[in-house]
Amino acid sequence: MKVSVDRALCYGSAECAHRAPAVFAFEGGYGVVRPGREGWGDDPQVREAAERCPSQAIVLGE
Ligand code: SF4
């Protein structure tokens, strides 16, 4: 499953980068998916980060 961040929704809390640092980084005031990690949507830490993102900006999908 793929994971991405909708930058229009992200308000830069940086929580994703703390919860799943192998997959998310915090750059330029936004959460970003690290290069090469776009297919990690099934990872439990990624799923938790998505559930807890305060702005629902983490998108999981095919
Ligand atoms: S947890 Fe959500 S709002 Fe916070 S930086 Fe990550 S994507 Fe953005």
TrEMBL record:
Signal sequence segment: none
MF-aspect GO terms: 3 iron, 4 sulfur cluster binding; electron transfer activity; iron ion binding
Cofactor(s) needed: [3Fe-4S] cluster
Keywords: 3Fe-4S, Electron transport, Iron, Iron-sulfur, Metal-binding, Transport
Pfam family, one: Fer4_13
Role played: Ferredoxins are iron-sulfur proteins that transfer electrons in a wide variety of metabolic reactions.
This protein's name: Ferredoxin
